[in-house]
Each structure stands twice: as structure tokens, then as C-alpha cells.
Amino acid sequence: MASFFDIRARKDAAASAGASKAGGKQENARIQPWVEKYRPKTLSDVTAQDHAISVLKRTLQSSNLPHMLFYGPPGTGKTSTILALAKELYGPELFHTRVLELNASDERGISIVREKVKDFARQHLSNPPAGPAGIEYRKKYPVPPFKIIILDEADSMTQDAQSALRRTMETYSKITRFCLVCNYVTRIIDPLASRCSKFRFKGLDKANAGKRLEEIAQLEKVELEDGAVDALVRCSDGDLRKAITFLQSSARLVGALQTAGDGPDAMDIDVPRKAVTVRIVEEIAGVVSGDVIDRLLQAMQSKSKGRAFESVNTIVEDIAADGWSATQILQQLYDKLVFDETISDSCKNLIVMVFSESDKRLVDGADEHLTILDLTLRISDILQSNG
Amino acid sequence: MALLVDKHRPRSLDALTYHDELSERLRALAQNGDFPHLLVYGPSGGGKKTRVIATLKELYGPGVDKIKIDARVFQTTSNRKLEFNIVSSIYHLEITPSDVGNYDRVVIQDLLKEVAQTQQVDQSAKQKFKVVVINEADHLTRDAQAALRRTMEKYSPNMRLILLANSTSNIIAPIRSRTLLVRVAAPSEEEICQVLESVGAAEKLKHVDALNKRIAQESGRNLRRALLMFEAVYAQNENINANTLIPPPDWEALIAQIADEIIQEHTPAKILQIREKMYDLLSHCIPASTIIKTLAFKLVPKISVNLKSEVIKWSAFYDHRIRMGSKVIFHLEAFVAKVMRMLERQA
Fold first, then answer.
1. CB-CB: which of B156, B168, B293 is closest to A33?
2. Residue spans of alpha helices (H) in A225-339
3. What is the DSSP string of B120-142?
């Protein structure tokens, strides 16, 4: 029983058990998205959520768990954390019978909460295999006496479905723990939120995200140009999943272009292996080139009103035809204007109002061309009347 | 007799005429065997669909050309039956979930899961996965997009998605972070001219350089529109020369007329007359947001500098109202009245 609490010994044992299986999966792993491939396997692998992880590790040792509510922006490791925790608790054999994972791609109306969730919550606990194998198993994994129901993307559950959970959570709390995962904690009704201990997952900071990306790049043997990591982190604002997807896509592009370019013109390339450049990353992330934004800004700041309209109009027309995403333009213009020292604060107030309105319109699905034109013209007006 | 647009649509990546770098990239992705989920976006008439079809062909070979259309029936939770058309080959499926309006989530969940859970039957197929092409992905409801999230991750060994959209604004961030974004810009005017020239040569039509240039200009960098205009011009006129009139579409002519009327007279009686024209446009299925946008851009060159940005401001405002509201004619008329009022005040 002493080794029950010895988490390291158990982990080592688990790792050696996992390694023997890995061989057969190699073929599959090649085409796996890196996001899945490098999903943290254990709690300690989760990047940069020290607070939540340390609390969870303690619960792992005491093998008691409260109901949990994970919230935070996308790509910060919420789902990864709970899956890693569940794996550490139950190990591969009991994982399927002890954990129920439901997400927005499953039907999750009130009827499902009443039937599927309740049925699972009500079930008896499955036990590790009997005999000496079971004792061995228990040495590796704590196997606490409860099941876990993971409700991923819980903020897209209806109010009714959420309220149907309330009593279920309490009635079966002896043998079942719930873990709600969501982006916006405000969309979870209060009675549910108050039954859970909350864990906030913060957006990843530059250093941590960069470190993880470099690790992955090294494992996948992707060459990164100087500044490419910065570009990845910048384009993904704290969303590690996005950053990893970008990394994989750019690696694919670079690798693929290389094999395709082995023809007669391959001689032109001096570098033996092409590296992922900042430009490729930005292209993949859909970032509008700085040149376009600068031209737009310049046009907006022109002094005469008639000229401003003409030049802004043509540039916006080009932007619309080039298919740049309006939200992206909005974001980049915002970053430029708000941090521009030459614009007075009162002016910025007015400008931010315009941004807010335009953003709402875009989200509602208004015409992009008109909205961007309106936005730029209004900002141009504000700049002229105050400048 | 097919339209020129369909007849001369490039069928393979080699035949694509512009955005060579992009085509090269798509080919590289297709040959690599490690094909990601794609989100292809860009203005209409820029060649998104053509590129996607060509990419599919690169992936699977000529098998994707043999398509059939299935009508499937889905049942919603409230037992309503929905009929839904699926275009499919043995390697891929093409759906337009916005056809079923608010029930698109049901279709997405049922259909994608079904596809995802079956493996490729054809053992000799080049790829192990099937591709699902989703048209008009920006019209998917939030629910449907949320339903896509996990499906995309979970079933990625058996299925890849290609989403087609006009803009990424309406696509939720989690989807954007799971896909490789591919931007297809509209062709430039020179590129349109080249296409027109090659199509004209293939059809043995008389080549008039100046006319092609004018068509390219009029089309607003929309290749489909340019080709349709090109065909219309050649169908209507016997003798083609540089000054042959390019007939604008009826609806555009009508909107131009409305713009003129707004500028000439600012009275309630005029609004009443304009209302009739508006109803005429609406009954011919011209979308209200197209009307308001075209009207604004027709008005702008005809009014004084000070009012231009005002007109754009209000057109954007009422365009948003149209999106949110349910009765479009109110907002169209309100816009007309607003512009008249502005002109009146200035005079």
C-alpha cells in the first residue's frame, strides 16, 4: 500500500507499459495531427498552467476529486489536462469504462443528460482485473472509487440541459465526478458553477509557448528560421493548438515544396534544407501583409477629404477582391492605431467606438466590403477633425 | 450546350491559369499524403471551387469525376424530416448544409459521423481518408460549427474536411485554428483578360483586345461574371468591335436608375415610386444586401465629397439592419429616405 502514494514509481511503471505498445502505432502517428500527437500524456507535461496543475496533482495523491469546472481561452490545455488526469488515475484498461467524454459534436440536449449521463453516473464501478494482475495494476494507477464524466465545450449546452444536470451531480456524487470544460464561464448557469471547484486556464505566455513549439520542431526535425517561433506565437495569441497547427501546416508546405522542387530547378537552392520562414507562417495564419495595412493607414490620414475618399475606396476595393478576412484587417488596424503615439487619447476613444460597432456588424454577418469601407472612412473623418 | 464558364473550367491543377504559387502549394499538399483540413476562402468568382476540385483530382485521380447525386432524409430531434442533397463520388462528398437552414447541425452530426466511421472501401484508393467538401461554410450556424470541432479531431484518420467560404469572419475561432487557411484572391484584370483570350481562341471567336479589357473592368475582378458577360456579348452581337456595348445585368441597370431618381427628386411621392422598383428587384430574388451595396456604390460618384462617407456610413448601418431584421423593405426604404434627407439638407 505504501507504493500507492508513491507517484513516481507508478508513473515509471506506466511509461514502460506504454512504450511496448508504441511500435504498432507508428504508421498511424505519421499522419496524425501534431496537436493530437503531442497532446500532453501526463499532468506534468501540460505547459504553463502551474497553478491548476499543482492543485490537481495534490488531488491525484489524495485520490479524491471535487467536481471541476475548467475555463479559459481555446488552446490552453483544458481538455488535455482532464484527459491526462483521467489517464493517470485509471490507466489504459479502466479508462474506457470509467470515463465518459461528451462534447458538442454529440447530441447533448436535455434528453441525453437525462438518459446517457444519468445511466453512466448510475452504473457500478468497474474494477481492475482480479488476482495478482489487479494488484499490479493498482500499484501503477490509483484507481479511485469514482467515475469521471467530462462535458467538453459545456458552454454550448442549453440552459435546460444544464439545469437537468444539477440534481444528477449531487445524487451520484459518491461514485461520479463531473468535469465541465468551457471557454466562457459566464455561459454556465450559476447553480452548476457553484457545485464545482473552478480552474482558470490562462492564455499561454510567449516564453512557454515558444519553448513548447521549439521542442516539437526539434522532435519533428523542422528547421525554423530566426523569428519564426515569434511569428507563430504572435499569430496565435496564446492559443497553443493554433500555433502547433500553424507549425505543422508550414512544415508540410516547406517539406512538400521541397520534394516537389527536386526537378531541374532544384540546383538553384543553395540551402540543403529549407527552413520555415516568417512569411510562410504569416501566409498560413492569414495575416494581412503589413504593406497593405500601411497603405490603408496612409490613405486614411491624407489631409483633403475628397482625396482620402478616393484612395481609401480603391484600396478597400482591392482588399475585398484579394479576399483578406475583414476581421483580420480589423484586428491589425486596431493594433496599429491604438498603439500609435501620434494620435491623441480622445481621438482613440472615438476610434475604438467605431471598431466596436464594426466588429459587431461583422460578427452578425454584414457585408465585409461595406463595413470595412465605413470603418476606414469614419476613422479617417475622426483623424481629420481632430488632427 | 454548356455555358462557357462550365465548358472551360480547368479540371486539373495543371490547367489552372493564375495563382501559380497557390496551385503548386495545393499540389504539394496533395502529393505529400499528409493532407490537412482546409478552409478555402476568397471572394466569389475567384476560383475556389475549381481549385478544390482540381486538388481532389490530384489526390485521388480521375475517380472523383464520376459523381452522383443522392437525396437523403434526415430526422431532427423533433421528428421533422429533412430532405438533403449530397453530391458524391466514391472518394468524396459534397454538401451544402445551409440548404436546410437551422437544422444544419443535425446534418453535420449525422452525416459526418457516418462518413467518419466507415473506412475507405476501395483498397486501391490512393488515400485512406475520404474528403468532405462543405460549401458555404460561412453560412453554417454556430451550433453546426461547434459540432464540427471535435469531429474534426476525432475522426481525422478517416476523413478530411474542405470548407469553402467567402470570408473567415463568420467561422468560429476553434475551427479556424484546426484548419489550414487557404486564401484564393480574385484574379487581376490582366489575368481575366488572358483567360478571356484563351477561351475566345478555343471557341474561335473574334479577338478584340479593348473589349476584353472593358469586360475585365466591368466584372469587378469576378472571373465567372466576366465569362458570362463575355458570352452574352458574343451571343447578342453579330459584329464585335472595340466599342460594342456590354449590356449590364437588368437589375444593375434598375438600381442605377433608382440612384438617379434619388438624386433628382427628394419627395415622399418619389419614395413610393422607388418602393415599387425595390419590390420588383426583391421579387426577382436579388438579395437585399446586394441591392443596398450596389445602390451605395452607384450613388457615391454622383454626390458631393462631404456626403460620400455619410452615404457609406448609412449603407453599412442599414446593411447590418437587413441582416438582423426580418422585413428587408423597411431598411431599404429607410436608406433611400435617409439619403434623400441628406441631399435635401445640403441643398
1. B156
2. 228-236, 240-260, 278-285, 290-300, 305-322, 326-338
3. P--TT-S-SSEEEEETTGGGS-H
Architecture of domain B4-183: 3-Layer(aba) Sandwich (3.40)
- Mind listing the pLDDT tens digit for each residue in A235-284? 887 788 888 888 887 887 776 555 544 444 444 444 445 678 888 888 77
Average pLDDT of span B123-131 = 76
- Residue A280 Cα distances to A169, A214, A323, A333, angstroms: 48, 17, 18, 21
Which A-chain residues 296-315 have CB contacts (< 8 A) with chain B?
Answer: 305-306, 309, 313
Q: What is the CATH number of domain B250-345?
A: 1.20.272.10
Structure confidence by residue, pLDDT tens digits, B192-239: 888 888 888 888 888 888 888 888 888 888 888 888 888 888 888 777
Which sign does the torsion angle of CA A191, A195, A200, A201 carry? negative
Quote the number of domains for chain A: 3
Edge-to-edge strand list for the sheet holding A176-182: A99-102, A147-151, A176-182, A68-71, A197-200
Which of A185, A200, A215 terminates a domain? The answer is A200
pTM strictly above 0.90: no
Tell me whether residues A257 and B157 touch, CB distance under 8 A.
no
**CA distance linking residue B150 with residue B319, whole number of Å:** 34
